[in-house]
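Ticket reopened. Same input as before:
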Amino acid sequence: MAQYGVFIGAAVLLIVTITAIMLAKKASSGTASYREEDHESFLGSKRD
Amino acid sequence: MDNLPEPTHHASDKEVLHQFGYAQQLLRDMGGFSNFAISFSIISILTGAVTLYGTGLNAGGPVVMGIGWPIVTFFVLFVAASMAELASAIPTSGALYHWASLLGGPNWGWITAWLNLIGLIAAIAGIDYGCAQFMAPLLGMPDIPRSHMIVFGFLLLSHGILNHIGIRSVARLNDFSAVYHMLGVAVVVVALAFFAPRQPISFLFTKTYTTLVNKPYWFAFMSGLLQAQWTYTGFDASAHTIEETKDARVKAPWGVFLSVAVSGVFGYVMLMFITLAIKDLAGAAAASNPIQYICENALGARFGSIVVWTMTIAMWFCGLACVTSTSRMIFAFSRDNGMPFSPIWAKISKKYRTPAAAVWLSVVLTFLLPCLIFGLLAVHKSSLTFTALYPAVTGISTIGLYLSYGIPILLKVRARTRGSWTSRYDGPWNLGNWSATVNTISLIWIAFITVLFVLPPNDLTGYIFAGSLAALLVLFLVSVRGKFRGPLGRTSSDADLARLEAELD
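Engineering reply: fixed in the latest deploy. New output:
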């Protein structure tokens, strides 16, 4: 039972992590081309 | 969409605002980190996850922390991504209200604005009253409602003054707050990791416990999700401060999304170590402050006191950011004549370039909420206390806010289905061909939690929320229907916008 629970927990965490990364990557592709002309990163520093 | 201006992706922040018919009245001084920090501070894992820790533990036990938190995080990421897309497409501080108005018409905008306001006011009340309950005993005051109300009043006053004085100082405080939250979690986690005895890791994923009687465990577990769901509220603040953010169409959406993602990670690590440090589960669940009980049992009274101070300060930061967000919402709604006495609340302080009147209205309305509840309790001679009503207030806040998040997402899905919203209206932060699926999952989750959090044992939330909706309906039918035009009623010319901006320079 304990091992089963840990397996489910690990699976849930993995799914959440992968989802967050995939959503962020998808959004990044849209902002990347925008940044090419605006030359600013998320933290505000100028990009060369 | 007839209501949306022709997209020009590389216009400046000010030019984009002008396209939507608004002048740059607020001081645009926030960077990406500050924008992220305001939402991260309102989500405040050291506030929501802590004050409702007992609610979660009593509902479903450690499994609510181990499994419930990631499940809620998963779905809230979809909601945040959907909102981030809209913030990027329509970057105005009215945010949800403005999105709903443009996508569905002024009536949808009006109801969205009020749901958002109800949620935000209930959120500030929940946060600051919770802070006052923690702070009064720490200041040596008796732990009674009168002391709580005095401290509550002073907390709101401090938030009002700082928000009146300026976005620059508030932004600095929010930046510090974000770092403070991360360091606060790190202190708790490191201390518990190295010095406290620990339960096996399976305790998080398999140990069930509930004090809810006559309910199946799965239902009790889901009721406990209120803890995580309330924590994940207020991330619309990044959208409400979008007119004060530089490079707004990119940085504000990231602020919305990342505040949820980063809170998910830090919140989970904190909850994991706190829960694994539980020695006596029934004792912790029955304690008035379970986190303090667990930390004191694991590491001694001194550490317990440090933890309470750490969390109390975090709550103060959370309340500060929440007043900022609420005041921008009131300002944006009022400049479109959505509130009673709108011209007053839409005024900007010439000296500080902040919506000063809206700041003080947020503070006063928040102060009145517990006064109203105490008044009702006194009239009905009820045995209930405000403390007992705390989960109901957080429930109202959660439902109000999430419904206001859901309406513009729903309207966007409808517009896309009708073909009036196409990808050309997307902002630079968009999910492309994933957008429809992500939006739909968000809506299903919002519908689910709205029903869940009004079912027993949260039925009190349902009654209060239904009463609020009935009052809104009356207000709408009597004085709004057919009269309110929202942002669609704006006829600002370039000369008008220039004049408004010149008045503040």
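Chain B touches chain A through 41 residues (CB under 8 Å). Residues 301-334 of chain B form the longest helix (34 residues). Please confirm and we'll close it.
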